[in-house]
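Mods, move this if it's the wrong board.
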Amino acid sequence: MTRALIVIDVQESFRARPEWAAISNPKIADQVDRLVRLARDAGDTVVWVLHSEPGSGGVFDPALGQVRLIDGLERRDGELLIHKTSHNAFTTTNLQQELTARGIRELTVCGIRTEQCVETTTRVGSDLGYDVTFVSDATATDPVTRGGVTLSAEEIIQRTEFALADRFATIATVAELEAAAQLEATASDGE
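Not the wrong board. Structure tokens:
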């Protein structure tokens, strides 16, 4: 296939942070697991991206053991595992080269930090010419306070969807992608 699912930062590091108590989607692993199963069933490439900050001494320091997939998610043999040190999954990694080598033209993007890591990966992917689908209900973020004003996680997700829609990505939900996969399977059965 020419599609890849990019799972960004769905890792224990985030659950180890105090901000996790305010996360918008504490069960993100459930939605991600559904997307992973869809991708595997379709024969699509699955790419796991983890954020790491080697030597930092914090939750993103691989030496402390939190830079691993959230419990309940499992990488299969042959699936890419990429470590990034920037917000987007392309800048500090060989992701583009890996996707090019596999003939990937379409990306489905999900993960933690809706407005930061997932959005920037979506934008860069779009800039690189990929057809990108941003799965909003398979993302998670926490509220942001700046200058005494707080944006709720829901407002952040809504703003991110608004900024990405039609310019950089198609916005979809897990259920919509499951329905599309079912229609695709039904159509191929009828041929």
